[in-house]
């Protein structure tokens, strides 16, 4: 019998074509459902300062949910600072890959902080250690954020710095006492414990991570700055503004801040780390 007289090869070819068309259709539907993330320009810089070890750790990553930047500052003066900051950042990056929708971001932030705190406490086994942490997710015009400790997130907008997160320090407690009339301004500013942390990761009495109730609405030209206290305790807002306005890319701005810190050559300069995000 002549090949193909029973029509079988044509049926096989036809089925293959239909299968390919079906796969292309499914792929096109999936691509339509997958949200697109606009380009984000990222810059970062870091210096060890006058310390013997770099206890700051940072990273960033982008998924369909947005761009995550996370920075942790292992507490200076305590052992295991580097281990704590590295564990914290690594865990946040790993867990972020499992976030499937923007509505899950608050849970991701709070739950990851809780888990990180438990893991650090377990790793320390009674030894001293801990870390601060700030994390931000840039999704379109919105910034979702979480923070614990005294590292900060700032928005630089048209020559003005907008603070995003409060610091978890005893200084904030003193400020509230001053505002309520319990202490004087001099007593508030002279208290030697004003920079002492009252909440951080690796703390057995860890309270919670401060999380935005609603995302921060960004405007065109905004720059999101994440930095450890080694940055804002060394550079004034005027100095930071000069660097931001005189630089082009976030990378140039971040490195400019680090260069300015190192140029001061402070005898007790802390580790300093900065990340800058800008919508592309």
TrEMBL record:
This is Protein phosphatase 2C domain-containing protein. The lineage of its organism: Bacteria, Bacillati, Bacillota, Bacilli, Bacillales. Signal peptide: none annotated. Coiled coil: none annotated. Residues 41-279 form the PPM-type phosphatase domain. It holds the Pfam family PP2C_2. The chain crosses the membrane at residues 7-26. The keyword Transmembrane helix applies. It comes from Paenibacillus chitinolyticus. Keywords: Membrane, Transmembrane, Transmembrane helix. It comes from the Bacteria.
